[in-house]
Write a structure and sequence with these properties.
Blueprint: H1 2-6, E1 11-15, H2 19-28, E2 34-39, E3 52-55, H3 61-68, E4 73-76, H4 83-91, E5 95-96, H5 100-106, H6 109-118, E6 126-129, H7 135-141, E7 144-148, E8 158-161, E9 175-179, E10 185-193, E11 199-201, E12 205-209, E13 215-220, H8 226-243, E14 247-255, E15 261-267, H9 277-280, H10 285-293, E16 306-313, E17 320-321, E18 323-325, H11 327-331, E19 336-340, E20 345-346, E21 351-359, H12 362-375, E22 377-379
Parallel strand pairs: 1-2, 1-4, 2-3, 4-5
Antiparallel strand pairs: 6-9, 7-8, 7-9, 10-11, 10-12, 10-14, 12-13, 13-16, 14-15, 16-21, 17-20, 18-22, 19-21
């Protein structure tokens, strides 16, 4: 009985073994939670530190069902998983967070956008397209953003169609066509919700993207006024409550010139725009995700240090065993915190790690992060 009172030993399964799973495991160790991971490759970042590791396809019904049967809780590292198997596990008493019916909506950008419309959540206008959509129709919509409905990640599955010369890049698969929004800033808010319906929200993050539509640089607090900050966090809470999701939700926002905020899309899991919380906040996004899916009281989200984060991306033109050029120099700067993901090989734009720079002064943190960005290269 005493052991039950002092421990929260549960068996948690994670579908997906990348860096997000790895960082979640690092937090779970402190909670004495047994982590099982399933991923299709043997050498994924989570493989060395998971309590147990299963090689399997997270999109395969039988693999997911077999993996999940003996777990107390199942969570995901990526949305592209087999929903039907998760529904079956849920019906058989396994807790699945985020819930399968919510994942089913979020993993399909068409369903996700329609959800916003149905729940009066501000978002850009859109339409569904397919391989039968004519080039003439696309021409009439320029400029626009074209997104695959399913399977996109880290900027993959997104095309910016600015002129007729870009029309060769439109997707023939089921996609959504969105207006190209003249935003002034791209923002993100991390929010959590547990089974009891308790919510906790983090301060807004401002993101800058590279040419591959991947986050290259972010910082928090965002450089926005207090009214915009309040509206952004209130909007994020309203979105997670509308979904009634249990777990962590990253709510990506556009800030328009007139001050309006639009929801771009969401991610139902720890997110790249929340990595800075490991050093900058009382409770990291990874600990918060654990608390929410284990139905524990949510942690304080107060920011204790301002911070800027850069993604360590593989340099274009390099493919092979990873080498981190300039790391000693980067570590000589104050407030630098390095997180390498344990990926043995690099390639162009592959996420290999991230570096967070903390400081009591945001401008100094950003300046140092820019120096680090110019110093560290991931090559082969």
């Amino acid at each position: 009985m005493e052991k039950e009172l002092v421990g929260i030993r549960q068996r948690l399964g994670i579908l997906g073994g990348g860096q997000l799973g790895r960082m979640l495991i690092q937090e779970a160790i402190s909670y004495d939670v047994h982590i099982d991971v399933m991923e299709r490759t043997v050498e994924a970042p989570s493989s060395i530190i998971a309590h147990s590791y299963t090689v399997g396809e997270i999109t395969d019904y039988d693999d997911v069902l077999k993996f999940g049967r003996d777990k107390d809780v199942i969570t995901v590292e990526i949305e592209n998983v087999n929903i039907e198997a998760l529904k079956e596990l849920e019906m058989n008493g396994v807790k699945v967070f985020p819930q399968p019916h919510i994942l089913e909506i979020i993993k399909d950008k068409g369903l996700q956008k329609q959800f916003y419309i149905d729940h009066n959540i501000p978002t850009s206008s859109f339409e569904l397209t397919s391989n039968s959509t004519s080039i003439e129709h696309y021409k009439s919509k320029i400029p626009f953003v074209h997104k695959l409905r399913t399977g996109g990640y880290d900027g993959n599955g997104v095309q910016l169609i600015r002129t007729s010369n870009d029309l060769g890049n439109v997707f023939e698969s089921d996609s959504i066509l969105e207006d190209m929004i003249p935003f002034t800033k791209e923002l993100s808010v991390i929010v959590a919700r547990n089974e009891a319906g308790e919510t906790a929200v983090y301060q807004t993050v401002e993101c800058e993207f590279n040419d591959a539509n991947m986050v290259a640089f972010l910082f928090s607090p965002a450089e926005i006024d207090i009214d915009t900050e309040n509206r952004a966090t209130e909007l994020a809470v309203s979105v997670i409550n509308a979904f009634e999701i249990v777990g962590l939700l990253a709510v990506e926002l556009f800030l328009l010139p007139n001050g309006e905020l639009l929801v771009n899309e969401v991610a139902p899991r720890p997110h790249n725009s929340g990595h800075h919380t490991i050093e900058c906040n009382i409770t990291s996004q990874f600990e918060q995700h654990l608390r929410s899916i284990l139905n524990l009281p949510l942690g304080e989200t107060e920011m204790i240090r301002k911070g800027a984060m850069i993604n360590l991306l593989g340099e274009a033109g390099y493919d092979g065993p990873a080498k981190y050029e300039g790391m000693p120099e980067a570590l000589s700067y104050p407030g630098v915190h390095v997180h390498l993901y344990g990926k043995a090989s690099t390639r162009g734009n592959r996420k290999m790690g991230h570096i967070t720079v903390t400081n009591s002064n945001l401008t100094e943190a950003k300046n140092t992060a820019q120096k680090v960005l110019e110093t560290v290269r991931v090559i082969a």
